[in-house]
């Protein structure tokens, strides 16, 4: 996913970047790296907001809210 993100950043494909950030966040969450997951979900949310994509934004926001608090890491 990181290589895909690098390519999308290079070509300025912001919407695809959001999708990749979401995938990276999900992967980090599976690995219980909650701070990294939180950062990636937040980046995805910011881009979805730029595109006014309320549907994907809501999904990312819900995933972000389900992450354990920082104190539990």
Topology, please?
Layout (H helix, E strand, L loop, with lengths): L1 H9 L3 H17 L3 H17 L3 H13 L7
Describe what you observe in this structure:
The two termini are 24 Å apart. With 73 residues, the chain is mainly α. 77% of the residues lie in helices and 0% in strands. The chain has one domain (2-72): Methane Monooxygenase Hydroxylase, Chain G, domain 1 (Up-down Bundle). The chain has helices at residues 2-10, 14-30, 34-50, 54-66.
Output the number of helix runs: 4
Shape: flat
Under the CATH scheme, the architecture is Up-down Bundle
Provide the gyration radius in Å: 12 Å
Return the CATH topology. Answer: Methane Monooxygenase Hydroxylase, Chain G, domain 1
Helix and strand pattern: HHHH
Strand count: 0
Helical residues, percent = over 70%
**Total domains:** 1
Which class do the helix and strand fractions yield?
Answer: mainly alpha
Strand percentage lies at under 5%
Give average pLDDT, whole number.
94
Low-confidence blocks of residues: none
Measured distance between first and last alpha carbons: 24 Å
């Amino acid at each position: 996913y990181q290589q895909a993100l690098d390519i999308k950043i290079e070509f300025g494909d912001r919407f695809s970047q959001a999708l990749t950030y979401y995938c990276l966040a999900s992967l980090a969450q599976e690995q219980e790296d909650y701070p990294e997951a939180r950062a990636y979900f937040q980046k995805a949310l910011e881009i979805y907001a730029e595109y006014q994509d309320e549907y994907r934004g809501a999904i990312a926001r819900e995933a972000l809210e389900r992450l354990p608090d920082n104190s539990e890491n």
